Amino acid sequence: MTAVDSAQSAAPTPPAAPAMTREELEELIREGVPLVGSFGIVVESLGAGTIRLRLPYKDDFVRPGGTVTGPAMFGLADVALYGAVLSLIGRVELAVTTSMTINFLRRPPPVAIIAEARVLKLGKRLAYGEILLFSEGDPEPVAHVTGTYSIPPHDPVSVAVSHYRMDVAS
Predict the structure, then answer these.
(1) Cα 157 to the chain's mean position, in Å?
(2) 118 vs 51: CA distance, rounded Å
(3) What span, in angstroms and rounded, lies between the C-alpha atoms of 89 and 45?
(4) What interhelical angle do 22-32 and 70-89 show, nearest 10?
(5) How would DSSP label each residue in 31-94?
(6) Which residue of 15, 24, 91, 122 has the fewest CB atoms within a 10 Å radius of its CB?
(7) Residue 25: how many CB atoms within 10 A of its CB?
(8) Which three-class secondary structure state does DSSP give residue 166?
(9) CA atoms of 125 and 163, how far apart (whole Å)
(10) Measuring CA to CA, which residue among 141, 138, 142, 170 is closest to residue 157?
C-alpha cells in the first residue's frame, strides 16, 4: 500500500446531503436577501459545498450594448457563494461577504445566467470559494468570481470540503 493509498483510505467520506434543502435556501434568498431574491433566482442543484443557480433572463438585466448587466451577475455570484457556504454550515444567516472579486471574461448575450459555486476552504471563521458564471446553453464562462465569507460563532457542525470531513467548533 502506497502513502497515497493509505491517505485515501483514511479520508472519511463526505456527508450525503447538504445542511439545508433547496427549498429552504430558495426561501432564505427570497426573504433574507430581498434585492437579489426579487431577481427570481432558482436553485437548480445543491450539494455539500456546491450549488448551481439560474438567474432567469429579464429585460431589466440588460444594459446598453445588449448584454447582461454586471450588478445582476455580481448579485448572482454573491448569493451563490452564500448558498454554497450555508450548504455546509446550515442556516447561519449572519454569514456575510468580506471580499469578492469578479473578472468579466466575455460579454454575455441577453439570456439566463447560470452560476456554479463551490467552497474551496472552510475554516472556523472564514470560508473561501469560487464561482463560474455561464450564459445559458454555452459551456464557456462569462465571468470568474472568488470570494470570502465571514462566519459568525454558531453551533458546531460537521462539514465536507474537497471530500474531507472535519468538525468545526465555535
Answers:
(1) 19
(2) 7
(3) 17
(4) 130
(5) HHSHHHHTTT-EEEEEETTEEEEEE---GGGEETTTEE-HHHHHHHHHHHHHHHHHHHH-S-TT
(6) 91
(7) 25
(8) strand
(9) 20
(10) 170
Whether 105 and 113 have beta carbons less than 8 Å apart is answered as: no
Q: Cα(149)–Cα(39) distance, rounded to whole angstroms?
A: 22
Hey, what amino acid is at 134? Answer: F
**Which pTM was predicted?**
0.81
Dist CA 5 CA 91 (whole Å) = 36
Q: Which residue has the cell 447560470?
A: 114
The pLDDT tens digits along the chain (170 residues) read 555 454 444 444 455 589 999 999 988 888 888 888 889 999 999 999 999 999 999 999 999 989 999 999 999 999 999 999 999 999 888 899 999 999 999 999 999 999 999 999 999 999 999 999 999 999 999 999 999 999 988 765 544 444 333 344 43
Residue type, 70: G
Question: How many C-beta atoms lie closer than 10 Å to residue 145's C-beta?
Answer: 24
Q: Which three-class secondary structure state does DSSP give residue 5?
A: helix
